[in-house]
Amino acid sequence: MSTENAIKNSDTTIQFYAGLKTIGGTIFEVKYKEERFIADFGMVFQNKEGVQARPQNIISELQAIGVIPLISGVLKTDEIDENATIAISHLHLDHIGLLQYVHPDVPIIMSEGSKTLYEHLHTIGEEPNVDVAKQVKSVPFHQALFVSEHIQVEFFPVNHDAPGASAMRITTPDTTIVYTGDVRLHEADVDTANLPTIAGSPDLLIIETTNVQEEFLDINPVIQSEADKLTAGLLEIKSPLVFNIYHRNLKRLEILIEAARQKGKTIVFEPETAYLVQAYKLEAPHVRYLLDERYDSKISNQIHAIQPITVAELNSEFSQVWLQSSYHHMMTLLDLPVKGATYVHSNGVPLGSFDPVYAELLEWIEKLGMELVVLGVSGHAAAAQIKWLADAMQAKVTIPLHGFTPELLQGPNQTFLPEKGEIYPISTLLGEK
């Protein structure tokens, strides 16, 4: 069958459950007849923690308030649809945060680098409700995989601030779709820049638009390397330093450790983070982990390559230490001489002002007498770079997603802004009557 006739008789549809007009949460589904492919399963940033869902009704109640979408056949309370597969582009919470509610018999696939990190996150308790060994399968880059009889997916490496970040090419008998996931075009990286060459000219391009916002449209698109920008900023700080970190960004851990070495400081991590430092062989003589008996950590007995430091020792040596303090462990700072210290927000959780908890973090910093310094590098391409990527992909239809103002991006041919929950036949999107 010719491509034109295949599109006219298309059995492929696409439906978007999350990721529209927001930078939080991404879920969409490609369906060929009864076969289903779900891309990402992310959580939208919503301050729902103050009202506790009842455990026996947690999925239905979270659906009622809009945290979990009304998606059938894949959740723990569903009768399972054996035709469904979930694929993950990368491990940020807005792309995987709802996996804990997925039925254990629904297969989950991701890149090899993502699965390795996912296993470590499971060990430290961040992904406790997924049986990684039984349910999650890793897929090598550039190796096409049939997830069902007629739906094929291929993962491609892209640059983002999480290891294993991937774009996907989803192929059915009558269409080809490329989903970029979240991407960064970095002056020293080539993966995202190569995407148009290795995966270009699809029928549909689904592309992130995080930085496609009015105030960012004219910013120089060249992104400075994380090491260059962050190391210089860290070395300029003269006061004692407290910082947060996002466990998905392993490059940031490496940068902090190296900057502390250059500054002649001991760097102290929370046990879970120290476990990741050990797992990725980033340990060094000046790296310690905080041993606090009041802090219930079940991971300390698995840390062998890094020495502990107690709160009492930390107190007496505080001026010579860089200390990690996640938001949920801020109480520890009450026991330390942090007044006058600098709190470096380095893309840790809460990630930013779109998370209501961020305001509470700022209150803590003020109450403790610390100075806030925001020191990070975006994991997302600049607006001009996203426009370049969309043009270079030469898709018949471009679908901007995962941004506050996706309408600001226009693809090289047709551009389409979907509505949540609507089912779109591919033939309709491509202009067939």
Automatic annotation (TrEMBL):
Q: Which SUPFAM superfamilies match?
A: Metallo-hydrolase/oxidoreductase (SSF56281)
Name the UniProt key words of this record, in alphabetical order: Exonuclease, Hydrolase, Nuclease, RNA-binding
**Pfam families (alphabetical):** Lactamase_B_2
Q: Name one GO molecular function term.
A: RNA binding
- Which residue range or ranges hold the Metallo-beta-lactamase domain? 24-226
Which residues does UniProt call coiled coil? none
Under the heading InterPro entries, the entry gives: Metallo-B-lactamas (IPR001279), RibonucZ/Hydroxyglut_hydro (IPR036866), RNase_J_2 (IPR042173)
Q: What is the protein's name according to its record?
A: MBL fold metallo-hydrolase
Organism whose genome encodes this protein: Sporosarcina thermotolerans
